[in-house]
Amino acid sequence: MTRNRYATLWIWIFLLPLAVDYKAADATSSHVAQFLLVVPTLGAGVILALIAPRSRYSSGFRSFVTAALIVTVAGSFITQLVQGNDVGNYLRVLLPFALFLLGYIVACHPWNEQRIQQIEKAIFWANVISLIFTFVYGMATVGGGGLVNVRFRIASPTFLGLQGVLLHEFVIAKRFSAFTLTIFVATLVIELLTVTRSLLIGTALLFMLATWMAAPSARYLVKALLRAAMVSVMIAVMVAAAASLFPTVAAEWTTRIYASKNTESGKDPTTITRLAELKDQYDQVTSSPGTILLGEGYGHYYHYSPYYLPALAGQMSTKDFYAIREWGPGHNFWVYQLFTGGLLFGMGLPVALLYALYRCCIAYRRWRDIAPGAPDLPVMGRAILLLASMPAQSIGGNPLGGRFCGIIFGVALGLMIAMHVQLQRSLARRTRHGTGMSPAPSNPTSPPVPHVPQEPSVA
User: How many CA within 13 A on the CB side of residue 224?
Assistant: First the structure.
């Protein structure tokens, strides 16, 4: 819709406000500012969905993913009516999932090249702003207590997604600039300061995926591995430098890695509490045929399973253990989906997510081999790595626990599906007419990528 003069404005209003979303200091804090961030996002999203260009061609792939997401969100109303959970808690937990659906609906349309560039640019800058704002806000709002207290609040909710996009530029596109390298170094420093093992695992998995995507056939594998080795060395040097400059951080990492050896049970307390949470959710949802089918609902309370209480001896008192009563999105995306929606309304989103990633990754490697010059291919590659950070993030938490995550991951899924549909039709049309795709540009730095600027400027 190039004729809509305000489309660019709506794109930025849709993606930017929630980049400065924040966690309230406590349950009694005012939520007015957070409410004011959501309203323009929802309004701009609805407008974009209305003015988006309509596809003239049907796609079974896109229809399947769309149906799965609608069933997940709309089906939650049925579960809510059956379970009767607290309405406020239900709406708060459901909102990121609704924003995920809205972001997908906005991005899955066949936008023209100009609009896609604007969407990608807005996504990139929103992620960068979120990275900076979250770190500064976390450092400013947490009082004393040192690294132990600060580390929980300084990592952006789309931290891994930003790393995925940058890894596409380094490993696949072979584009390096001072600005993108600086941002990537900043993500590594913050990652070390969080002392969170799951983030490091997520970064490693995204790095492996980017390397695999960069080698569409055996003849490209050696070059891809060499580039991956170079990036690995760079990361290792940064990690070593950070460890030498911040001995407190290194000591904290040592404590976290060997946490199980310092407990009475010999088991890692973080892992045990996660397992206790998952088992209670699983036990609740499998307690009756009705909950297996419909789930317990978003915002339903869960606890820690008593089965794991002995493993927390010396780490948590019995009183504190049984006092756990949470209604948030939990720390595991996969089990929580079953817990909230059951088999009917909970499993559609995970299945659609995994199927879409699998199908698009396979198609990307094939098309990169036979049609490396396809104009939509880089957009699809960045969307894949951005969305792939969602299951990577689920290792240590629920990636749809934050509202900004819902918007970004939803748009990433929509872009990925849209590019898949467009590339599939374009390649099929060229095959029918006996024409091939143009080869990839000889200069890997040209043309420039719109959403990863070479200079620290939005202009």
Answer: 20
